[in-house]
């Protein structure tokens, strides 16, 4: 359990202390049992949440994300047919559709970054950082920088928002014709679930600790 | 497992330490960068409020054209008509799409406007005696951080709709100029929320920070 009396704090070395990044409260950093969590008393921020076989889970989920992303951007995503016209699109085509004129190019680049590039880069970085730890080796060169970048990119990975956007667009476009849902649509939904699971399995504190210890 | 004791919490700052907000490692106050993750160490970033206001201002500047100019341009047999965010939602509602209209109004109007107000309130209340309890301010901060990204829904809706509705000369839909200013507005307000240092909410027993004083990096 946590002991936060000031006399105790003064006596412990800085390695045994953790500060809540959101409210600055100090705690003794003691690894809780697997599955248990250390939560900040006053702002309820989760400080430490170790999980069984976390490295293995995170690496396999990140690999899954990469494979799913490959399929999800390539296969047909949505299609629509009306009065003899037919139009099918993939995520890649959707993103590239506006590379022909002025400001829409910027729009294409943003969307490509949010739903394809950033999720993919995060998966690659996470594999690069965690795989050596999983195999009990020394961390890869620049592993700390890689993990830092991956964490900084987290809010900019918007696959889940894209899926909700698709749902809204679907309801909107049924007015125009018969809508067809392609395999990539379902792949994308699985991808969103896998990404969420990956974020849940990652205990940042344990990873930082491991990167510090072994390099 | 939250601790049940009622002993007073001490902060890293009160203990003469500075904490890394990125990896939660604690260092002696004089350290400037985190030796573990390389993050910049600042005990309380009072400049953060200026960054919050600056990002907010740019975000607001982008949000105005996003509401004035068309989000979608629909071309039917050579005739082009534009739809703004609110105009588009009203058209949808007229055609019976109440639910979608509601989602779009929520994501594109309610969330951004609520976010402008909430971030401004957080930034102001750090400097003032609290008008709300600390836990509630912290919850508000969390909510703002969580919800901000979801405004991007409408940009994705525009992209998907315009990629799909391409029936040669009969009907084509293209993104309007508001789509890009709206996306920029969401990005800038995300930066504003990220610039806010929530640790300030809890300082001085929630009594906040005085307006004067050279409190940067103390």
UniProtKB/TrEMBL annotation, chain B:
Lineage: Bacteria, Pseudomonadati, Pseudomonadota, Alphaproteobacteria, Rhodobacterales
Keywords noted in UniProt: Cell inner membrane, Cell membrane, Membrane, Transmembrane, Transmembrane helix
Presence of keyword Phosphoprotein: no
Compartments where located: Cell inner membrane
InterPro entries referenced in this protein's UniProt entry, alphabetically: PqiA-like, PqiA-PqiB_transport
A GO-annotated cellular component: plasma membrane
Protein name (database record): Paraquat-inducible membrane protein A
Transmembrane segments: 52-72, 98-126, 147-171, 177-196
Keyword presence, Cell membrane: yes
């Amino acid at each position: 359990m946590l002991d936060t009396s000031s006399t105790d704090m003064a006596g412990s070395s800085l390695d045994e202390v953790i500060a809540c990044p959101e409210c600055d409260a100090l705690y003794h950093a003691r690894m809780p049992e697997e599955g248990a969590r250390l939560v900040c008393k006053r702002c309820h921020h989760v400080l430490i949440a170790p999980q069984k076989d976390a490295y293995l889970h995170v690496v396999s989920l990140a690999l899954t994300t990469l494979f799913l992303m490959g399929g999800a951007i390539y296969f047909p995503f949505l299609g629509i047919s009306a009065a003899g016209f037919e139009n099918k699109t993939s995520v890649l085509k959707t993103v590239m559709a506006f590379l022909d004129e002025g400001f829409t190019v910027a729009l294409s680049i943003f969307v490509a970054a949010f739903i394809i590039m950033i999720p993919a880069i995060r998966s690659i970085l996470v594999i690069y950082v965690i795989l050596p730890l999983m195999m009990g080796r020394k961390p890869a060169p620049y592993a700390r920088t890689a993990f830092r970048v991956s964490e900084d990119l987290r809010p900019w990975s918007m696959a889940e928002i894209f899926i909700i956007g698709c749902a809204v667009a679907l309801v909107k476009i049924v007015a125009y014709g018969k809508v067809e849902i392609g395999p990539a649509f379902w792949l994308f939904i699985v991808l969103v679930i896998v990404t969420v699971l990956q974020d849940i399995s990652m205990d940042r504190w344990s990873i930082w600790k491991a990167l510090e210890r072994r390099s | 497992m939250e601790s049940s004791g009622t002993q007073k919490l001490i902060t890293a700052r009160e203990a003469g330490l500075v904490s890394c907000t990125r990896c939660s490692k604690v260092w002696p106050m004089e350290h400037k960068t985190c030796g573990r993750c390389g993050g910049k160490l600042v005990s309380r970033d009072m400049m953060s409020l200026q960054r919050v206001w600056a990002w907010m201002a740019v975000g607001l500047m982008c949000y105005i054209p996003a509401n004035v100019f068309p989000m979608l341009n629909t071309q039917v047999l050579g005739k082009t008509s534009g739809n703004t965010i609110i105009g588009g939602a009203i058209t949808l509602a007229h055609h019976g799409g109440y639910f979608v209209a509601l989602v779009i109004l929520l994501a594109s109007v309610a969330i951004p406007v609520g976010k402008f107000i909430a971030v401004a309130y957080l930034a102001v209340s750090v400097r003032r005696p609290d008008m709300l309890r600390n836990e509630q301010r912290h919850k508000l901060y969390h909510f703002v951080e969580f919800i901000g990204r979801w405004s991007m829904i409408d940009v994705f809706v525009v992209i998907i709709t315009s990629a799909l509705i391409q029936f040669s000369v009969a009907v084509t839909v293209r993104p309007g100029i508001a789509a890009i200013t709206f996306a920029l507005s969401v990005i800038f307000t995300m930066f504003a929320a990220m610039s806010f240092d929530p640790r300030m909410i809890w300082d001085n027993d929630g009594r906040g920070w005085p307006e004067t004083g050279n409190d940067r990096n103390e």
